[in-house]
Structure formats: structure tokens, C-alpha cells
Amino acid sequence: MRPHVEVIHEDDYIWHAAELPEGEGRAVERRLSVDEEDGSSSLRVDFRTAWGRGPGVHHADTEYYVLDGSMTYGGRRLGPGGYVHAPKGVPVEAVAFSEGSRILHYREYGDAGFDRGARRWADAREDVTVIDSGTMAWDAVPKPGPMPGLFIKYLHVDPLTGFYTRLVHAQEGWADHRLEHHPCYEEAYTLEGHMEYNFGTLDAGTYFFRPARVKHGHFTSMEGGATWLLRSDGELFNWHTRNEWVRWGGDALNYGPQGRWSQSSHDLGGGERPEKELAMLRRSLEHARQQGDYVPHGLGPDPSLPAIAKALDAALLQGGHTHPAADWGADPAALEHPGERTDAAAHNRGAGRAWQPGDPIPAPIISSLPVRSRSRGRWDGDGM
Questions:
Q1: Per the domain annotation, does 357 fall within a domain?
Q2: What pLDDT does 384 receive?
Q3: According to the UniProt record, where is the region Disordered (predicted)?
């Protein structure tokens, strides 16, 4: 499993010698996130000299995306925006990078192993994909949220698992006032631009890896918009939450005013979002209202308060003298797939599962403070 990494800037990572076996040259890598169980990795790689490797077979589904410099694959030169997807077990041609090149490098479902000159594995699927994304047109996202302004370029989609890699652009002024969660993990590296959301600031060089079902949102795309390379290990269904609230509390024993205390996310106000961002979120609300889909975010009574009051009244009427159990609605366990608690990923609460329309929609995960950058990130009342 990979930890929840949210809004870390690549400059906050240290450099390691790049793990690129069977190659000639010198390269270093920043390990954005790593799965220590199966070797999956998301890496930022710099080539300090010219580097090359002959034909062979990767042990993992492997992706390269050129940020700066050039990559030559099978004699074809690719500059910034060049992309190669090499499925594990599928023979690849010789690859080379010019000195000073900067790339994103991903390995999925396997480690860095590479067998020079090997033949195609018997169970290998698909073929190598080679794309110059700079020649591709941006397509409007069919469901861009409560307002238009999202665009996409599909780089690779696995026809069997739904795993897909794409470039996404949010134009300046695009906003979404809702929180959302997904059945799959989601990770992104910010290529350019500026966006604010509940976990912090997305600008060039920032990265996140978010496990399945973790709530996130309140997006505001700022000056110049924002562009990412974004990956998911399955089809990205969006499940939205509005007017959200969280309540926590307990009995203070040896701190503060002793006694029972309770606090809700409604009590935290607007957090630290500046007026410009709040105005953008209000425009998102107004657009939703015009479309006939309007619920004011964060307004009205906290639903937890009537639940507590009703439980207390019931206990008093029955002569109870202990703290009653409030009815908070559906038990999150009832919204999971039964196999989630018994399958191979049962140890990982944030693991994604294949989901199809009509399946039970799992409850979201309210994230604790994730691994986070020293130079980026924000944690306030929106941190869900």
C-alpha cells in the first residue's frame, strides 16, 4: 500500500541514485510515492549525463513522461510532452535520454526489474504506446462539475482494469464547491498553473497520492488555470458531498476545562480561504443553482445537533442516566462491498476496488493529516 501523500512539492524530497538497471549513464530520482509491498513507484527523474538502455522487458507496467529535454524511443525523438507506456512483459525498443532531461517515471504492479533482450511474456497484454501529447487537442470533460472549464487528453487507458493516465487542465476561474471521493486511487503531478483546494496549494512541481475514498474538494483554479498529469487505478467515478459536517469530542481528563466537549466542522467557519477563492466558490454555487441543483454549502443547522438532541430526549423519557448512542445514519460498513473486509486488500482501508453503476457506493474516508510538504499545504476546517 502507499501512504496518503497530499500537496508535497518535489523540492521537499531528497535525491537518490536512480534505480534504472541495465542502463548506461547517470541519473537521480525523487521518490514521490512508493508501494513497499509490490514495488510500484512514482518518481521524478533527472538525467545528469546522457543515458541509454537497450531493448528488453520491464517487470512492471512502466510509463515515461518528458518534462524537459528529450527522450528517444526506438529511434523516434520525443521532446517535452512525450509519453511512452510499456506494459510489463512486453518487449520494448532501445530508449535514451539527453543530458539534463527531466521526466516523470511510473512503475505499477512491479519493481524496477528489467531483462535485457528478453522475449514477450506469455501472459503479457497490450503493446507499447508512444505519444507526442503536444500534438493532441484538448477535449472538454463531459461532466466538468457544476460549471464548464475542465479539459482532458487521454494518454493511456487499460481496457481490462480501467487504469488510465491523462493530462487535465482547469481553466482560470473554474471552481467546484463540493467535496468528492472515488472508488480508485488518484495521483497527480502539477505541470503548471495554480489551484487551491482543501488540502492546500497546487502549483508547478506539487504532487499528491490519494488513496481510494478519501474526501477532497472545494477547488478554485487561479491565475492561468492549472494543468496536471493525473493517474487512477480504475475508472474515476465521482461521488459528491455537500453541506458536509464532522463532529468529534469526548471527556477531557487532564487538559483544558474538564468535562465533556464537542466540536463540529461547522464551528470552524470559513478556514483560511481568502475572499477571492470564496467568491469563486460562490460562483460555482450560483451556476449550480441556475442548473436547478442548489444546496448552500456549510449553511443551515448542523445535522449532528438534532441527532444528539433526539437521542438525549429519548434517554430522558426512558429514565436513562448514561450517554445514549445517537443515530448518525448509515453505518459506513454497510456501504462497503462485503469482500472489502475479506479480500487481499482488507489490510488497506484506502484500497480501491472495481466499481460499476448499480454497485453499493462506499462511504468516504475522512482523512487524518496526510504526509505533507514543509513548503506547501494547508490544514483547516476544510480538511476532509
A1: yes
A2: 45
A3: 349-384
Which pLDDT score is estimated for 213? 92
Distance CA 366, CA 261 (A): 20
**Residue 342: strand, helix, or coil:** coil
Q: Do residues 280 and 358 share a domain?
A: yes
Distance (Å, rounded) from C-alpha 368 to C-alpha 345? Answer: 20
In the three-class reduction of DSSP (H, G, I as helix; E, B as strand; rest coil), residue 336 is classed as: coil
Our count of domains for the chain comes to: 2
DSSP element (H, E) containing 309: helix 304-317
Asked if 232 and 210 count as a contact pair (C-beta separation under 8 A), the reply is no
Condensed to tens digits (0 to 9), the pLDDT of residues 326-379 reads 566 677 777 777 788 888 888 888 888 888 888 888 888 877 667 777 777 654
Q: Are residues 171 and 92 in the same domain?
A: no
**In contact, 346 and 340? CB cutoff 8 Å:** yes
Q: Which residue segment(s) compose the domain that 380 sits in?
A: 148-154+162-384
Cell of 59: 517487470
Q: Tell me the C-alpha distance between 175 and 285, whole Å.
A: 9
In 3D, which of 135, 140, 29 has the Cα closest to residue 81?
Answer: 135
Considering just the CA atoms, what is the radius of gyration of the chain in Å?
24
Burial of 195 from C-beta contacts in 10 A (0-12 / 13-18 / 19+): buried
For the record, the C-alpha cell of 33 comes out as 510515492
CATH number of domain containing 166:
2.60.120.10
CA angle 364, 366, 369 (to 5 degrees): 145
Handedness of CA 312, 316, 317, 320 (dihedral sign): positive
